[in-house]
Specification:
Distance between the termini: 11 Å
Number of strands: 0
Shape: globular
Order of helices and strands: HHHHHH
Helix content: over 70%
Number of domains: 1
Number of helices: 6
Radius of gyration: 19 Å
Structural class: mainly alpha
Largest sheet: none
Length: 211
């Protein structure tokens, strides 16, 4: 009896323009990840570290999108599982940084923090502009554009945290923003891992029935 399972459709033809846009966005986000990681350590800013987590997550997202263009569901889910795991681990690192900064009691350097926050906002706007053409494409194209667009909110939060630190001389605006962003990284990583495991399980179960 012939197998009646519904197999995945043939991969769509790779879009060279979308691939180029992804590479540009990937390099921008990797560069800002390093800038905020180093700048956060220099300025003693947990919020910058948390935002660097966001840039790292975006970099992985773009790299995953590049890697899975035309790939099958199982491999897309497998790569997404790795991405979610790394995002969650980085979230724990940032929370640890928040606790350490609180124990140290050293307020961050507001001017450096604000300057890097503005640079990060410009970087995310640049990424969004590059990906704007693909905002009405498939779910993969939409997700990467929305990712850059929504990240600008996090950059604005960092800038406001810097203003709060500058105005009050307190570390708490920085710590609050960092904790919120780290929590979002943890929950986002968990959701990605959960969905990827479900997709892998469904794929294996379907193929076992077909054998």
């Amino acid at each position: 009896m012939a197998c009646s399972c519904s197999h995945e459709p043939a991969p769509i033809k790779k879009d060279s323009k979308f691939r180029t846009a992804l590479w540009i966005a990937l390099f921008i986000n990797l560069a800002m990840f390093l800038v905020e990681l180093i700048g956060g350590a220099y300025a003693h800013s947990s919020a910058l570290w948390a935002d660097s987590l966001d840039f790292f997550g975006d970099s992985v997202n773009y790299a995953v999108s590049l890697a899975v263009l035309g790939a099958g569901l199982y491999w897309r889910a497998t790569v997404a599982l790795v991405k979610g795991t790394v995002m969650a681990l980085f979230g724990f690192v940032v929370i640890g940084k928040v606790i350490y900064a609180y124990m140290q009691g050293i307020p961050p350097e507001a001017m450096t923090m604000g300057a890097i926050g503005v640079l990060a906002l410009i970087a995310n706007v640049a990424s969004a502009v590059v990906l704007y053409t693909f905002r009405d494409g498939d779910s993969n194209m939409q997700s990467v554009w929305l990712c850059s667009r929504n990240d600008a909110i996090g950059n604005v939060a960092v800038i406001f945290a810097a203003i709060g630190v500058f105005g009050t001389g307190s570390m708490f605006p920085d710590l609050i923003v960092a904790f919120i962003m780290a929590t979002l990284g943890l929950t986002g990583g968990y959701q990605v891992m959960k969905k990827s495991l479900q997709e892998r399980k469904a794929y294996v179960a379907e193929n076992e029935v077909c054998q």
